[in-house]
Amino acid sequence: MLYYLTAVVFGMVGLTYAAVPLYRTFCQATGYGGTVQRKETVEEKIARHSESGTVTEREIVVQFNADVADGMQWKFTPTQREVRVKPGESVLAFYTAENKSSASITGISTYNVTPMKAGVYFNKIQCFCYEEQRLLPGEKIDVPVLFYIDPEFETDPRMDGINNLILSYTFFKVSEETNSSVPVQETS
């Protein structure tokens, strides 16, 4: 009985550590919550559309939203409120994160795209999401997101009438560190 209970405890601890990557994989596989699905790499999609000479005329407005979880003492904002983009064009946008506390804070962000059914066409080439960002007290950084909207967006009848997308990020606190716990290296 003791071995069984010990195995259950270790199994639950293991599942706790695996929860975030498993959830991310589930969301990317199913498109749940507006998360972008992955069937082919972004580079493969760009190359395929470049070779076929796909030209789009439709202009999409991508609006940017930024939030922080309750209790996280960061100011997190998009540097621009929106961009206008044609499907197939790459776009570089920035968000600004600032630690307003007197202690170092490590955060991690998640994102989603709304309307959710358009998430399958939203492709991030480079992003700060799902990567830990550590900010010292008062530190302010700009974090980039490079994306493009798949040209197939224009030909999908389910996307008729959708001319606005919202890219939303939320930062969550991962850990709180104090200056005394950060090792200091002395130089001679």
From TrEMBL:
Signal peptide range in chain numbering: none
GO cellular component labels: mitochondrial inner membrane
Listed InterPro entries: CtaG/Cox11_dom_sf, Cyt_c_oxidase_assmbl_CtaG
Top-level taxon in the UniProt lineage: Eukaryota
Keywords, comma-separated and alphabetical: Membrane, Transmembrane, Transmembrane helix
Stretches of the chain forming a coiled coil according to its record: none
Alphabetized SUPFAM superfamilies for the sequence: Ctag/Cox11
HAMAP family: CtaG
Protein name: Cytochrome c oxidase assembly protein CtaG
Native organism: Brassica campestris (Field mustard)
